[in-house]
Amino acid sequence: MSSHADRHTTASPSAAATNHGRDVLILAAAAIVALIALYAVFMDNGQIVAATGDYLHEFSHDGRHLFGAPCH
Amino acid sequence: MPLIGAVATMSDATSPLPLLGRAVTAGGAAGLATGLFSLLLAEPLMDRAIVLEEARSAAEENAHQAAAGAAAHHEELFSRSAQHFGLVVTAVVAGLALGVLFAVAYALVHRRTGYLVRAWPRALAFCAAAFVAVSLLPALRYPAAPPGVGDSATVANRQSLWLAAVVIGVLGMVLAWQVYVRLAGRPDPVRHGAVFLTGAATLAVLFLLPGNPDEVPVPATLLWDFRVVSLGSHLLWWVVFAAVFGGLGLRAARGPAGAQDLAVGGLPVAPVR
């Protein structure tokens, strides 16, 4: 995976410049997804899946206690 | 520096995506290792804490039998074994997500030199700093507590405090790093003293935050064991992450990817500053 990306970006100087903006966008999008995932496992108290019960909180219950995230 | 390493560095300097791939791989591996470690060592403690919690609430119910019983009994959505599995899943998901955030931070800090320069020592140094900022400092202020501790009425308040502690830990580490960088050229005692004072100030700010409002009705030995295992899990996560991330960085710098770059890319892409 990494070798493809490495080769891709060496194609030419201009390609490298346009790739840079794309790479920053991908990195920012990945960071947003990561923050949402961390919120879901460590912070959610029923805000994400509230209709049927506190499923996310209860499923990640032990992980929250272990890593020091506040729990009920 | 060997030529192959230099060429791989140039291509990698233009794209943080291989860095992202290495960090996410390392995060998943660290999450899995930590999940299995805590499944073995932390779950017996948590199961014991839950048995004690149930005994406690049963005793309370007996005491207040007249006052509309079964008030404290909340419905269980998942069995304990499902929650054991949930621990491993949580560790892996959090590991992947932390890997992404690590990649962003690493890319920002090392953007000037490229991401494969001194891959191993930089991985260790970055992970040591991140462990102190994200794991150790918040754990000193708000140590982990086993199940049975934690009042649902105060959870929103405790979450704000915990988040604040993590943010203060990260800001304190960034500040210490900046102090160290900007005092380059001063005598070492001045530089190191300033970094030490920054760390002390960060700790002081952390302890200005209000304390955890909840009672901790758990035997002291169980609480201590749980906190040691909790901090140990954090440490293990960072150790495995550092080893995998640093190892993948070394491999990318000297491996086939670097050799291919040497064969394909005749043109220099960007100057390495």
How are the elements arranged and paired?
The complex is a heterodimer of chains A (72) and B (273).
Chain A: H1 2-9, H2 13-42, H3 55-59, H4 61-67
Chain B: H1 3-14, H2 17-41, H3 43-63, H4 80-109, H5 119-141, H6 155-182, H7 188-208, H8 220-254, H9 256-264
Helix pairs in contact in B: 1-9, 2-4, 2-8, 5-6, 5-8, 6-7, 8-9
InterPro entries (chain A): CbtB_put (IPR012667)
Keywords (chain A): Hydrolase, Membrane, Transmembrane, Transmembrane helix
Protein name (chain A): S-adenosylmethionine hydrolase
Name the descriptors.
heterodimer, A: 72 residues, mainly alpha, 69% helix, elongated, B: 273 residues, 9 helices, globular, disordered N terminus, disordered C terminus
Shape verdict of chain B: globular
Mean pLDDT of chain B: 87
Instruction: Give the low-confidence spans of chain B.
Output: 1-10, 68-73, 259-273
SSE string of chain A, helix = H, strand = E?
Answer: HHHH
Let me know the largest β-sheet of chain B. Answer: none
Q: Helix count of chain A, per DSSP? A: 4
Strand content of chain B: under 5%
**Structural class computed from helices and strand pairing of chain B:** mainly alpha
Roughly how many Å apart are the termini of chain A?
Answer: 41 Å
Q: What is the alpha-carbon Rg of chain B in Å?
A: 23 Å
Low-pLDDT stretches of chain A are: 1-11
- Give me the count of strands of chain A: 0
